[in-house]
Here is the input.
Amino acid sequence: MRVLLVEDDRMIGAAVTEALKGAAYAVDWVQDGELAIEAARSETYEIVLLDLGLPLVDGLDVLKSLRTGATRVPVIVLTARDALGDRIRGLDLGADDYLVKPFEIGELLARMRAVMRREGSGASPILSNGKLHLNPSTREASYLGDRAVLSAREFALLQALLSRPGTILSRSELERHIYGWSEEVESNAVEFIIHAVRKKLGAMAIRNVRGVGWMVDRSS
Ligand code: CA
Here is the structure.
């Protein structure tokens, strides 16, 4: 899952980026409102984390711009403790949730999962196609009796595939779910991750469609 983090405080931005990567998100971090609007136009995100006090374009104006677009990306507003008026305006402008700084990373991650669950089709936090199951809060996966805890990248890959069972995802599609802009991606990185997941869950857990990409079976 790809996250756009909009935060001009370097300490907070760096800490949140690291934590999100550790939790298997691909993160693009921008530090002003103009870059945020540009990023949201050029890339598809599963969620946006938005600070309000930003250089160049204010966070509330970024939110307005996000809400005029054709697609509705979930947004969590990150605000200062004393900014009640901003929080109310943010929710009125279509933010899905807000978090008051300083916040615990664990709470941020739980709210992100909750917001994306509300956006998704079902209320179930477990992703599954019937044979393969994945729990986003523990990163545990199982396939026909084999169980394993996945690494952040293994999880990100399997989550991308299990979000669209029966759909073939290409290498570049998988990469955009696993890596942010700032990360160097080795040419065979996706194969390595697939190999590791198959080793843990069995070779049949992920299907290779030669020359096109990879998929997991449609729900049966
Ligand atoms: Ca700020």
Summary: The two ends are 24 Å apart (CA to CA).
